[in-house]
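Give me the fold.
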Amino acid sequence: MPRITDTVTTADGDCPVSLHTPDGGGPWRGIVMYPDAGGARPTFRAMADKLAGYGYAVLVPDVYYREGDWAPFTIATAFDDDVERRRLFSFMAKVTPEVMAADATAFFDYLAGRPEVRGDTFGTTGYCMGGRTSLVLAGRLPDRVSAAMSFHGGGLATDDPHSPHLLADQMRAAVYVGAARNDRSFTTEDGERLEKALTSAGVEHTIEWYPAFHGFAVPDNGPYDEPAARRHWEAMRSFFATHLV
């Protein structure tokens, strides 16, 4: 798949990105793919290539660009190493909902200006922390997001005043949540709370539970689950084909 590297200028600096497109002529609808807590890395660029093959222009941003030239995490072991876990959490803490929305505005503007991209609304998809980002953006930037997906996303319906479920009445996007059955960051009780919020707000949505652990869709995660990952790709193909046309 054709792939370019570039930077997107935001309010806080220059964010490295990769843009992945199908073979052949465009333009295509645009999707921003948000990585998990490990950040942008080869695994996600390969995943973006696969999604691009379904007929989309896919942007993968370095959400940790404010850290400068940061050393990559080995996500399969980062949470088991005290030093790496502290570094990872310090990075994550800086990506607040306000930062997510400000950066996404720049990403969407960038996509809108690319000749490979058509349309003035976009899809978002994300994993773990990126899954939360996807839903935050559906609520904070409803005029820009028409289809939002989250896979093993954490913190989607909590007591935090910035919890995405509290933005349900602002959302115009269709929403898909692919949740892990065994995930302390998104429990069945959280799922019920999110379901209630989306239903009450009239948001078109699907919440599906995968018989797998947190991290099931990302190949370099320890809990990667191939059958669940295949199911997530099928869901992504179907969802975007329906809601991002």
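Strands lie at 3-10, 13-20, 28-34, 56-61, 117-127, 145-151, 174-182, 205-213.
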